[in-house]
Design a protein that fits this description.
Number of strands: 0
Order of helices and strands: HHHHHH
Helix content: 55-70%
Structural class: mainly alpha
Strand content: under 5%
Number of helices: 6
Radius of gyration: 25 Å
Oligomer: single chain
Length: 164
């Protein structure tokens, strides 16, 4: 049987140490990314909660449920202003969400929920003027995504047919 020299053992231990260190760094990077994703989600939730809170500033306060059910009466100028500001601010949040998704910083499940909400707001006739104004300042890719998903045959987020 051949004896292995001490140099070979030292090199083997060194190599195993480097591999173990790289594995540890990989786990740390994964954990850091998960923490960053959770932090971003928390920041988005806080911002949206703050934006939704503007409905309570109306006199009398407006119900967010009425807005979601499209029952909001926008004939009152104050109510209209609050609703318009809400829509505009949400488009700024959505644009940020789109960027985060494109950069791989948002889970697919969260993105699908955001995209569904964007489609809903994009199709709200009573706020079309605010939506058009807000989207005129956003990325062309986001606008294209919304336009392409606006048609009934492309009602999924990818624009692909269900036949595939």
């Amino acid at each position: 049987m051949k004896k292995v020299s001490l140099d070979v053992w030292v090199q083997l231990v060194g190599l195993l140490s480097v591999v173990a260190g790289l594995i540890f760094v990989g786990f740390e990077m994964r954990q850091s990314q998960q923490i960053a994703l959770a932090s971003q989600q928390q920041a988005r939730a806080s911002l949206v909660t703050e934006i939704i809170g503007t409905f309570s500033e109306a006199d009398p306060p407006i119900s967010m449920v009425d807005y979601l059910d499209e029952n909001i009466d926008v004939s009152d100028p104050d109510t209209r202003a609050i609703a318009d500001n809400f829509v505009y601010r949400m488009w700024m949040v959505y644009e940020n969400d789109y960027l985060q998704y494109e950069l791989g910083l948002m889970d697919e499940e969260i993105w699908q929920a955001k995209l569904s909400s964007m489609k809903n707001m994009y199709n709200r006739y009573q706020f079309k003027d605010v939506t058009e104004r807000a989207l005129s300042f956003s990325s062309e890719e986001l606008l294209t995504l919304l336009i392409n998903s606006d048609t009934p045959e492309n009602d999924d987020s990818t624009g692909a047919n269900d036949d595939d």
